[in-house]
Amino acid sequence: MNFNTDKQTLDDLNILGKPGTDSVYALYNNTYTRGGADILEQMFLYPLADVSVINNRCQTFQYFSSLKSKFPFRTENLDSAENYLSMTDKRTMLSDTDNSLARKFSQLIAADGDYKVIFNGIIAIVEIMQTMQGFIEKIKPSAALTPYLTMLEEIEVLLSEADSKFIFAEKQPAKLPYAKIVELDKLLRFEYRVKIKQLLAFIYQLDVFISVAEVALKRNYIFATALNKDLHTVKLTEVYHPLVKNAKANSLNITPESNIVFLTGANMAGKSTFMKSLGIALYLAHMGFPVAAEEMEFSVRDGIYTTINLPDDLSSGNSHFYAEVLRVKKIARELGVAKNLFIIFDELFRGTNVKDAYEGTIAITRAFAEKRNCMFVVSTHIIEAGDVLKEQCGNINFVYLPTKMDGNKPVYTYRLEQGITADRHGMIIINNERILEIIRSKKNKTA
């Protein structure tokens, strides 16, 4: 089964972001090659939903993190190889009977453009294959008990199938005689082109493994453990938002017996940031990527859906409230097809009056409580709804982010506590900013 999500969720969690802006993808994009960056983007677009596949990828990242290996290939060689292999017209194949080209080569006269691409590409591939052979020999003993061993063995098969013994014997590839260049051109560009492309694909995967492992080391991220989806549990210890400077960490356990997290707290107490940190951690964990936390175990989900920064649908003439209703309807349909989902709602029905929001929050959260195979995080300012739900549902974990007062100044701890908070400090903040005084001041009065 595929892992399901949508654009709203990707935007809420800032997974991909816009080019040149801070995003979760940009945080991990430390790749050395264009091919590696393409693979990384595909990983971000398509998280995994299989326990063994997730854990295998995670263990591979963990292996390279422990190895602390640097990317061994020259990127200019990879670019030269790609340019060379893109020339598939057999009329450009070198011939040992082409005396003019042979003469150009032997006399070191500047050759035509095609020949330069061919020569540089061949030399690049020879160096790439030699580098790969040396890399395999170096890491294979330590990779023997890791999932990456399978890839290593596939790479070895590719190298052995390419009649590469004489390639590995070349000590100075840049000084290959013209006759050998002709021979290699036929071999590499036409007979073994597909195999060389496969080898390059393995190199780009290696780029991702090494670069993401470097991010984990640099930022002290941990590697999560994927559990069977039937356990319906998440254990997060000291998870924090990876894009927030000096972010506060929190711990949370979700089980079938407490599969709804009901979150309250004043404005600016950190509710949205906390929910985003949960969503990002679950999303990255399903990719097998390292996570900003101290420890994490999670039952694999079929998808993640969030509603944190829901935009107005002005083009359709819908109010913000109706946009919220349509979003809840979409989630309800997803829940109705027996999927194991992780759902986040930040302030249900904030776009309507308090009475409707109160009744809607109770009704929807109570309906969520019947889906024990799914996990929900619901935040609200309407604490009265929490009091009702506490009486009606036994599988809700009530937590809040507190506000401490230093005189008239709110101080936010950003640390979860158990229970429901009655903190409301909106008017205190308004008064602290002297907004009413500014409005009433003589400078704002007309003559």
Kindly report the spatial arrangement of strands forming the biggest sheet.
Answer: 6-7-8-4-9-12
Beta-strand segment tally: 12
Top-tier CATH class of the largest domain: Alpha Beta
Structural class: alpha/beta
The CATH superfamily of the largest domain bears the name: P-loop containing nucleotide triphosphate hydrolases
- Total count of domains: 2
Unreliable runs: 106-111
Shape, per Cα inertia axes = elongated
End-to-end Cα distance: 70 Å
Task: Offer a quick outline of the entry.
By secondary structure, the protein is an alpha/beta fold. The chain has helices at 7-12, 24-28, 34-45, 51-67, 75-85, 99-106, 113-143, 148-161, 165-169, 178-191, 193-219, 271-287, 320-335, 354-368, 383-392, 426-432, 435-440, and strands spanning 225-227, 234-239, 250-254, 260-265, 295-299, 303-307, 341-346, 375-379, 396-401, 403-406, 409-412, 417-418. It has 2 domains: 31-219, MutS, DNA mismatch repair protein, Chain A, domain 3 (Orthogonal Bundle); 225-444, P-loop containing nucleotide triphosphate hydrolases (Rossmann fold).
Please characterize this protein's 3D structure.
By secondary structure, this protein is of the alpha/beta class. It folds into two domains: 31-219, MutS, DNA mismatch repair protein, Chain A, domain 3 (Orthogonal Bundle), CATH 1.10.1420; 225-444, P-loop containing nucleotide triphosphate hydrolases (Rossmann fold). The chain is 49% helix and 13% strand. It is built from 17 helices and twelve strands. It has helices spanning 7-12, 24-28, 34-45, 51-67, 75-85, 99-106, 113-143, 148-161, 165-169, 178-191, 193-219, 271-287, 320-335, 354-368, 383-392, 426-432, 435-440, and strands at 225-227, 234-239, 250-254, 260-265, 295-299, 303-307, 341-346, 375-379, 396-401, 403-406, 409-412, 417-418. Strands 6-7-8-4-9-12 form a six-stranded mixed β-sheet, with helices on both faces. Strands 1-5-2-3 form a four-stranded mixed β-sheet. Helix 13 links the parallel strand 6 and strand 7 (341-346). The longest helix has 31 residues, at 113-143. The protein is elongated, with a radius of gyration of 29 Å. The protein starts with 6 loop residues before the first helix and ends in a 7-residue tail after the last helix. The model is unreliable at 106-111 (pLDDT under 50).
